[in-house]
Specification:
single chain; 204 residues; four-stranded mixed β-sheet; four-stranded parallel β-sheet; 6 helices
């Protein structure tokens, strides 16, 4: 019996063939590049592609007959998916320590502390911000992160406008997003969210 064991860690993807008779027959490890994983966060699509490379390499080298597959992933990680099970952003791993820093900051925020303890006493007269329901959101950049923001905006019944040099028309039609000029986006949006790398093309 041959088992194909697949592992996704914070630093590399691994594939291993284990035989019930011969024990470990072969191991393939491919480290991630910096653009794929910085330990705190990981690109899910690139990690999947790296794991595919491991499997292809190990299967091509030995032409093994696989009877079972075992999977192991990064523990205590978080990945949000849409209704079609597509990633909405990056994988946040156990190494993300921002939660502790955020909690520490709010402990010294007098306004937040007063609001928090009022809620504990069932006093719901909270400080509110501007209304988002039904407003217009302008996304400058509709890549993977911009699409994730657009998904969340749908929960507020927001109209979404987008400006991007490389347009994904199929995605925009499926999610009721309108591509517009930068000028129209700046003029008509109630909220603007920027999701672009700084390059020669994106400089204004």
């Amino acid at each position: 019996m041959n088992v194909l064991a697949l592992e996704v860690s914070t630093s590399s993807a691994k594939a291993l063939v284990y035989s019930s008779v011969e024990e470990i027959k072969e191991i393939v490890t491919i480290p991630y590049g910096e653009q794929v994983s910085d330990v705190v966060s990981q690109d899910p699509e690139d990690i999947y592609k790296t794991l595919e490379q491991c499997v292809k390499k190990i299967m091509d080298s030995g032409n093994y007959k696989i009877d079972a597959i075992g999977l192991c992933t990064t523990w205590h990680s978080l990945l949000f998916l849409d209704k079609n099970r597509n990633p909405l952003g990056k994988i946040m791993t156990w190494a993300d320590t921002q939660v502790g820093e955020t909690a520490q900051k709010h402990r010294h925020d007098d306004v937040f502390c007063q609001w928090f303890y009022k809620c504990r006493k069932l006093n719901w007269s909270k400080i509110t911000t501007v209304e988002m329901w039904g407003k217009t959101l302008g996304l400058i950049g509709l890549g993977s992160i911009g699409k994730g923001v657009a998904k969340r905006a749908s929960g507020f019944n927001m109209k979404v406008l987008a400006y991007d040099l490389y347009q994904d028309e199929e995605y925009a039609r499926a999610n009721n997003i309108e591509y517009v000029s930068l000028e129209k986006l700046l003029k008509e949006s109630d909220f603007i969210s920027l999701h672009l790398p700084l390059t020669q093309e994106t400089k204004i």
